[in-house]
Amino acid sequence: MKLRGADVLARSLAAAGTRHVFTLSGNHVMPVFDAALDAKLSLIHVRHEAAAVHMADAWGRLTGEPGVALVTGGPGHANAVSALYTALAAESPLILISGHAPLDELGKGAFQEMRQADVAAPLAKASWTARSAQGLAADVARAWREACAGRPGPVHLSVPNDVLDAIVDAPAFDVEVEKASIEPSPEILQALRLAKRPLVIAGPARMRAGMRALEEATGIPVIGMESPRGVNDPSLGRLAEVLKQADTVLLLGKRADFTLQFGKAFAEGCRVLSAERFSATEQLCAGGWRDEVRAALTYRPPEWQEITSTNHPVAVCREVQRLLERPDAILVCDGGEFGQWAQACLGAPRRVINGPAGSIGAALPFAAAAQLAFPQSRVVAMLGDGTFGFHMAEIDTAVRYRLPYLAVVGNDAAWNAEYQIQLRTYGAARAHGCELLPTRYGAVASAMGAHGEDVAGFEGLAPALARAAASGKPACVNVMIERVAAPKY
């Protein structure tokens, strides 16, 4: 059978198990759009290339399968690349496929010619340009393996126009991800047996891989770290105090990077071990220490309970928590001050946050991908008014694909994280350049066909949330909140 390179690409993705491709149309990739019909690939057509990558990122984190983003070359590729950094830091398996100028025109001033693989390389586990249509199946197989193997992460593949248009014999396709050994190291086991206050600290990918089972089997507290706040992660309570008490720490798929103050977060004399994978079935730690750690991680200041009937983020989150009391609930949290409050105050069986990159603006694409991956789940996204502006057009995407997530916008009419930095560092008299308007983002969502509500007073929040949750549409509840700094313990 003879196939175009575009058909080889589309069929290879389908054979690997790709269910949806997050994409934005453009000249270079139109052959793939055509090939997707015969390959039975579902295309989720977004409004900005970075949103396609953010959706693939969330898909990878939630399902464990590589999310696939497809964008056009040149400026489309440049738009998409910025989102790779978030996925790389979060150790999320995804494949970014970009159209590309024809191979036989490179160096001659081709339309939208760019050294795309070089641009993406610092932000991906691997990045290369396809050289032939016959080799595309192997390229997809390699990309899939690279995205999943070892510590997961994004991979980039550029596919030139002439490669997509070339006619070749149908190649065989096979992708097999190497299964890494998780046999426990005798040295690590012995060190943990001898420890009185051991900890396992897991990086983003490992914490998504059933770390609770490891804690139950060994009795050692397992702490997942995925926040740019590091030891000051608002969702981990008094983590900083716990780290100073530990005498032995196993870093599991985690580096002693800025989130651990480059190792200074541990007490002097603490033994620090490292492994990519680890398993054990014997009890290695007495239960009292684990109980002590869990109490510290779940600590929240008692004065928060006194914040009621007000537009403080704590009170807003308390109302939202009622929507998450379901076994299928998924919480999405953006960055910024309101996002930090949401991470501190809200709990759900699954969550996706901005991640160690510290980026903002991905919540709406994240929520769309979460709803697509788990159609029956309640998906709630928490984001500030500044972050809403990054990808507000993706509400249109959610409406078109009938993805009924609920977005709650905490609106303090400011880039509040930076405003708080100005207050602390320079004083109120020199705080400027961070103001926004108290825009009615609920009305914006309504104009796009979603369910939208704008809430000024706290008394209107609960009924607005209830109506939004019952609407059966993508929904946005925009609530005015107090302009307060992110939580500290």
Q: Helices, strands, pairings?
A:
Blueprint: E1 2-4, H1 5-16, E2 20-23, H2 30-39, E3 42-45, H3 49-63, E4 67-71, H4 75-89, E5 94-100, H5 116-120, E6 126-129, H6 136-148, E7 154-160, H7 161-165, E8 167-169, H8 186-194, E9 198-202, H9 204-207, H10 211-218, E10 222-224, H11 239-245, E11 248-252, E12 271-275, H12 287-297, H13 313-321, E13 330-333, H14 336-345, E14 350-353, H15 363-373, E15 379-384, H16 385-388, H17 394-400, E16 406-411, H18 416-425, H19 441-447, E17 451-455, H20 461-470, E18 475-480
Helix pairs in contact: 1-2, 1-6, 3-4, 3-15, 13-14
Provide an overview of this structure.
This protein is of the alpha/beta class. The chain has three domains: 2-169, Rossmann fold (3-Layer(aba) Sandwich), CATH 3.40.50; 186-297, TPP-binding domain (Rossmann fold), CATH 3.40.50.1220; 302-480, 3-Layer(aba) Sandwich (Rossmann fold), CATH 3.40.50.970. It is 37% helix and 18% strand. It has 20 helices and 18 strands. It has helices spanning 5-16, 30-39, 49-63, 75-89, 116-120, 136-148, 161-165, 186-194, 204-207, 211-218, 239-245, 287-297, 313-321, 336-345, 363-373, 385-388, 394-400, 416-425, 441-447, 461-470; strands at 2-4, 20-23, 42-45, 67-71, 94-100, 126-129, 154-160, 167-169, 198-202, 222-224, 248-252, 271-275, 330-333, 350-353, 379-384, 406-411, 451-455, 475-480. Strands 3-2-4-5-7-6 form a six-stranded parallel beta sheet, sandwiched between helices. Helix 4 links the parallel strand 4 and strand 5 (94-100). Helix 3 packs across helix 15 (363-373). The longest helix is centred in the N-terminal third of the chain and has 15 residues, at 49-63. The radius of gyration is 24 Å and the shape is globular. The termini are far apart. The model has no long low-confidence stretch (mean pLDDT 94).
